[in-house]
Design a protein that fits this description.
Alkaline Phosphatase, subunit A, six-stranded mixed sheet, two-stranded antiparallel ribbon, elongated
């Protein structure tokens, strides 16, 4: 019995230590990561390459775990071999304290203390208490404010514009120069900054700026749904769907579906594996997208079958070249096209440094990756502008979430700096005077993209998004950003059953 208790004690101790090391690892590398993201990736099948997260996590945790284990074994051995007794003379009485016996008696008190400390660390870094609190509360925000795009009146012009929708990994406005709204003395994304200055940028201030990632859109897989369907992808109360994992937001109606109904052909290209975190299901179910991914590049023999650069797939330099081939091909077709491009070089943790990048020794690796990515995208945009299809093509450059490892490259950023996500609209059919001092989120990009292509949207809203060209208040402006996000964290039966599972009454 005594041996079994000791085994149980050791097991509990090392499980708790592993949990603490994991939370510290997440905080060190990803900052204020959302617990929603961790739960999502536990519930959702993670097929395909996953970048260097796992290997970096193991390399971070394992040495510390082994060091703690060695110290623990050494201390246990010392106490096993030695009997340590303290004699205390107390009012002419000698009190003997056997340290070995004392530690044995209080070992479970130590475990309880470690559990409480682990809970504190977990809550401090992952906001566990609020996650639990909000998932026990109910909201009616979807019943009150959701506009069903299937029932909304959306009219595209007779002469339809093509759409190139570029999703640049982890791109935020922070890295602009100070004079244009960033915090840096000199921008590390100077080409993208110039693109924003010369085209249409919706901003949260009077300078260049961006949008706030709404709750349920804070990482790639869920951010994509927010950008394209105006809805969050929430896991808290949706185990029924994630167990079967057959449909993603079954009753959502995305930009891909709207465009498909108007005669468009939808495409998406990415250097990573399409099956990662259910992206292939979402894009196939919502717009019947033709998907080009890491596996496709191998099938078409663009890259070798054993191609491996220890990254998420293949690098952006190749992605842009393959996108040029695709654009030359699909632009010859009679139907208009919607091509989405998802980049990956700037993915956490430190990005992928392409061999063609010019390295600035004053910058950190991740900063150099952004600088190089800015140049690559600028070259790609300039190439598009030289093509015959450009005059009938709207280009949107966005990102779905903030940089998750900002602490590593933004240590000098003022604590009160308001971080937002990059957006720029090129060759928009319509203009607006309402692009400054706006409070808007991921969801608003959905109807705004359609409007940039010339679509007329009755009521100016689709799903939870508002057409920013219209000057109508967004939901985050109307309700307040904090209130809006708090409501999205709460349980909604309408969202769970009607929108998520498609079981509308």
């Amino acid at each position: 019995m005594k041996k079994n208790k000791m085994i149980l004690f050791n097991l509990a101790l090392f499980i708790l230590i592993t949990i603490m090391l994991f939370v510290i690892f997440v905080q060190d590398f990803f900052g204020a990561i959302d617990l929603e993201q961790i739960i999502f990736h536990i519930l959702v099948p993670l097929k395909g390459p996953g970048g260097n997260f796992f290997s970096v996590g193991v390399m971070y945790i394992l040495p510390k775990f082994l060091l703690i284990a060695l110290i623990y074994i050494f201390v246990r051995y010392i106490f096993y071999k030695l009997i340590i007794i303290f004699e205390i003379n107390f009012f002419k009485r000698i009190i003997n304290i056997n340290i070995n016996q004392l530690i044995f008696k209080i070992r479970w008190i130590f475990i309880i203390g470690l559990i409480l400390f682990s809970g504190y660390i977990f809550n401090k870094n992952l906001d566990l208490i609020n996650y639990i609190k909000y998932n026990t509360m109910e909201t009616s925000i979807f019943e009150n404010y959701y506009v069903d795009p299937q029932k909304a009146e959306v009219i595209l012009p007779k002469n339809k514009n093509n759409l190139i929708f570029i999703i640049f990994e982890s791109l935020e406005t922070t890295d602009y120069s100070q004079k244009n709204g960033g915090y840096r003395n000199e921008s590390i994304i100077s080409e993208l900054e110039k693109i924003s200055l010369n085209n249409l940028n919706f901003s949260h201030n009077q300078n260049l700026g961006g949008f706030y990632p709404a709750n349920g859109t804070g990482f790639t897989a869920v951010g994509l749904t927010g950008l394209t369907s105006g809805l969050p992808l929430l896991t808290g109360n949706n185990n029924e769907l994630f167990k079967s994992y057959k449909y993603i937001l079954k009753n959502a109606y995305s930009i891909g579906e709207i465009l498909e109904s108007e005669g468009y052909k939808n495409y998406i290209m990415m250097g990573s594996d399409k099956s990662f975190a259910g992206r292939s299901q979402y894009f196939e179910q919502h717009g019947n997208y033709d998907i080009f991914d890491f596996s496709t590049a191998k099938e078409l023999k663009y890259i070798n079958q054993d191609y491996n650069i220890n990254w998420w797939g293949f690098e952006d330099k190749k992605l842009y070249e393959y996108a040029k081939i695709k654009l030359k091909d699909i632009s010859k077709n009679d139907e208009p096209f919607n091509l989405s491009i998802l980049t990956v070089d700037t993915h956490p943790i430190d990005g992928y440094v392409d061999e063609t990048c010019n390295i600035d020794e004053k910058l950190k690796q991740y900063e150099n990756v952004y600088s190089c990515g800015s140049k690559m995208l600028n070259d790609f945009i300039n190439w598009i502008k030289k093509q015959s299809f450009y005059k009938n093509t709207t280009i949107v450059i966005v990102r779905d979430h903030l940089n998750m490892v900002s602490n590593s490259i933004h240590k000098n950023m003022p604590t009160n700096y308001d971080r937002t996500v990059y957006n720029t609209f090129i060759n928009s059919v319509v203009k607006t005077e309402c692009n400054k001092n706006r409070i808007f989120t991921t969801f608003d990009i959905y109807p705004t993209t359609l409007a940039a292509m010339g679509a007329k949207i009755k009521g100016e809203r689709l799903a939870l998004g508002t057409n920013l060209f219209s000057c109508k208040k967004t939901l985050s402006e109307e309700l307040g950003l904090q209130y809006f996000n708090d409501e999205l964290r709460k349980k909604s039966n309408y969202y769970n059953y009607c929108l998520f599972l498609g079981k509308c009454q």
